[in-house]
Amino acid sequence: VGEADEVKVRLSDKSEFTGKVVGRDTGTDIAVIKIEVEKELPFSPLGNSKQVKVGQWAMAVGNPFGLDHTVTVGIVSGLGRENINLSRYEDFIQTDASINPGNSGGPLFDIRGNVIGINTAIINVAQGIGFAIPSNMAQAISQQLIEKGKVTRGWLGVGIQPLTAELAQKFNVKEDEGVLINEVFKGDPAEQAGILP
User: Fold this and answer.
1) What is the pLDDT of residues 31-67, one digit of tens each?
2) Which residues contact 135 (CB under 8 A, 6 or more apart)?
């Protein structure tokens, strides 16, 4: 979608429409496009990505290299993947179902045909490591885009780092009980509330 206001939308029956961009969220790489149609369109139900388990079957559908309606099958390899540098807000489902160039934006299905994610990217130097935006995140983002045309997020204004075993011992707290605030940004809500590094 990029910076476009209008895009061409082609459905699986080859019909084409001019779509209007309702909103886009660059932080998650999600956009909502609206098309005007006179008939009811088929759709796939959204699943609950909170119920997804590592090891369950997953199917990726997309258009890799211009090959329409390509389906690949694999499993969910991991959940809550972050620090991959694909987008600003990351909480990816990892799958080994092949996600190739052209699959981005296509659905990741569970075995019952529920959409559990939106195929997003692969790690180029690896084989069988693909990522999808969880359906719950996609639904929350798309609802805000439909209602307001943009996404509003809370901002605390701190820098954080993981609480390692050594740091937990130093601060006399349990490991993995929180995060360490290593920076408080001037003028932001955390500083105004009196939070210190």
Assistant:
1) 999 999 998 999 999 999 999 999 999 999 988 888 8
2) 46, 47, 48, 49, 114, 115, 116, 117, 118
For residue 32, give every residue at least 6 positions away whose Cβ sits within 8 Å of its Cβ, in sequence order, or none.
Answer: 21, 22, 23, 24, 142, 145, 146
Q: Name residue, tokens 């690949």.
A: 72
Q: Nearest 5°: CA angle at 132, between 128 and 136?
A: 150
Is-contact 102 64, C-beta < 8 A? Answer: yes
- DSSP states of 34-88: E---SSPPP--PBP-GGG--TT-EEEEEE-GGG-TTEEEEEEEEEEEE--SSSSS
Type of residue numbered 81: R
Reported as a single tens digit per residue, the pLDDT across 3-39 is 888 899 988 888 999 999 999 998 888 999 999 999 8
State how far the alpha carbon of 131 is from the alpha carbons of 55, 99, 136, in Å.
Answer: 15, 8, 15
Q: What is the DSSP string of 96-150?
A: -S---TT-TT-EEE-TTS-EEEEEEEE-TTSSS-EEEEEHHHHHHHHHHHHHHSS
| pTM for the full predicted model | 0.77
* DSSP class per residue in 20-32: EEEEEETTTTEEE
Residues 6+ apart with CB under 8 A from 182: 159, 160, 161, 197
